[in-house]
Known about the structure:
By secondary structure, the chain is of the alpha/beta class. It has three domains: 3-79, SH3 Domains (SH3 type barrels, Roll); 94-162, SH3 Domains (SH3 type barrels, Roll), CATH 2.30.30; 180-476, Alpha-Beta Barrel (TIM Barrel), CATH 3.20.20. It is built from nine helices and 24 strands. The strands form six sheets. Strands 15-16-17-18-19-20-23-24 form an eight-stranded parallel β-barrel, surrounded by five helices. Helix 4 (264-284) packs parallel to helix 5 (312-329), helix 5 packs across helix 6 and helix 6 (343-357) packs parallel to helix 7. It is globular. The two termini are 13 Å apart.
Amino acid sequence: MPGIMLKLKPEIEALRLREAPRDGKRIGEIRIDDVIEALEAADVVQGKLGAADQWVQVKKADGTTGYCAAWLVVVDQVVTQPQPQPTPGAKGLPLRPTVSALRIRAQPVSGEQVRLIGTGDVVISLEDEAATKSKLGVKDQWLKVRTIDEADGYAAAWMLQLHDGPIPQPMPIPSALNLTGMNLDVLHPLGAPDPARLAGMGWVRLGFNVSAGTGSEDLNAAFQRYDPHIEKYTRAGLKVMLVFTHQTYGEGKNEYWPWPEMTTEKWKRLTSRLAPMVGQIAARYKGKVAAYQIWNEMDAHIGAVASVPMRPVDYAYVMTELIKAIKKVDPSALCISGGHTGGPVKGGEYARATLRAMHDGIKPDGLAFHPYGRGVTQPKEPYAIFGHIDDEMNSYLPILPGKPVWITEWGILDRPGDKPDDVLKYATELVQYMKQRWAGKVASLIWYAWAMSMHNGYGLVGQNDQPLQPFNDGFRKL
């Protein structure tokens, strides 16, 4: 199990280290700059953090061990086993596709698809230099290659050319207690549960709603709504993700309605107001919010009712300006794309078009997608009607080479009458598969949503706020 590193809460300057909990002899002191190692299991530590009268056994950098007050410390990081690093170029020439969509196959010609890559991607030839150069551009010749994330397969050599630029390097996944997480909503009566009810998860995802449907720009009112929740989840060791959308700025303003009639000029005008707000939000939550997601399901068809979509060129502008505003005040914060919902083909094409249109050398730290209707087992009905999860992983992973992808929404929609046992079986199969098959390639698996009454998602609790068992307990143990 990963080791958890702790630090003092920001408002605490020093804390006693005791020989035993509560009244034990004082044997040292923990200072504000110290990072200490928890000596208890990760799930035990998570359950104690933020809880009054709970004590956790820790070790300081000098080797001193003892107990400290669990309600006065927070998670600094989770130490995982180091991921193996690929060695691009070590076994052959770097190559890139000449077409926008090129399959990497398990075997030449008709082998199973391993990855789907495009013109911005780089692969490494696993054949010697002479053989590689003799095949490039030659019809019906196949090359064995390796992707940046170390997937091996065969590519059509007549659709490859030499790459002479820098080779992307892999980015480690962010530390969290677990890949699993939960979509919450502080404006919903059941949408911000006590952290203890989320024990076992690593992430919480919150849409940051300033507009409140009225066009409000009152950031102070929004801070009053969100501050206590961000504080309690951070204190409990959960990683917090905030989502910026039209609800952060624009919803309820007549100049941006109806959304399907938005123009490039209007998106730029909206962004000029949204970016400064985002900068203030990121400054306030520096060190507390681990990741910011920019928009949500922006690749849906124009006019979609569940999100506010836009053209890739407009999204490129919005994402560029918001990343700049966030990184200016909090360079360590992760900025990821909105969750793509267009599937492996249309969604992948949208993501590539967005990245091509971005400027100033700005790129997101990761791509997110929402694989509703996908799973890992047959038959496909009722929870995997759109196919296997690998289709989306193989499409999105190569788009930002070396960076993990994020699943920021997944779950079951519009089926409130399904049995919790069946839902748990589906969730268990997918989570276990992702952790085994795609270890180190996916950063989060955030379920939608906590409560059955939160829009149309299948929740861990019902509308009466009572746990739906065995799904509730089972999911938190994944």
